[in-house]
Amino acid sequence: MRKRTVPRGLPVAATALVAGAAGVGGTLGYQGLTAPDTSAVDAQAAAIVQDLGKDLDAGFYSAGGGTYGGPFTEGTLVARVEEHGGALLSVRSAGLNHTAEVMLGLEPPRGTTVDPDAYPVRCYRISFARGTHSVRRADVGCPATRTDGRPGSLAAQLGALLARQPDTASGYRATSSSGYDHTPEGVTRFLHDKRLVAAGDTVTGVAGEAAGADVYAAALRINGVCHYLRMSTDADLIPLWAAPADEQQGCDAGHAVTASALYGSDPAKEG
Question: What is the dihedral of CA 59, 64, 70, 73, to 10 degrees?
């Protein structure tokens, strides 16, 4: 994962509590009584839709000549959302139809130097099936409470989670786990060998189970944050990602299996 800036949710946690009491729920306090300009964060949501459309391209080549696709799991969603300054709240699936809810505005988008105040916290519902044109976006209200039942805003909770992500340059990099045992010990060795975690990161609570032919899915905590890992021979797969906000408390292997198989085929080979 990239080196973190100070997340939006952390320094304003106390203000967010006051905001909640005033009836604006999880909205960050700096927004005050004025309606924020949402154009910049809305543009990030639109960019996620565009990125996912490329990932879901059902042909071998895009219109511009580039190749897209690859094994599409929940890790693909998380990588795209965090790249644009947000966090995945939840994912629901019904057959080939998938719906994700995301919160953006927690951090400035990757690679930007824009003032964070230009990105107020906003939530969106993103749905997709198969193919580039299946991706849809809708604005939704942000949840007013934390997923762990504690007092405070969800934005502050997610800001703290983002701050505890592994501080490495190797996160969300497609990596094969070929040659590593499908055991908790194999998981830990894989994470350190591939530098998906740093020397100072703590890995605890590893629990995994088979998720198909030569596929092993595990749930684990890195610095207290629940992550899912898919171990397979796929070289073009993002193997490790932070679990959605609504699964941070449970953090079990069953959810890891479901997440690893969200879109386990390669869309670029279906056209």
Answer: -100
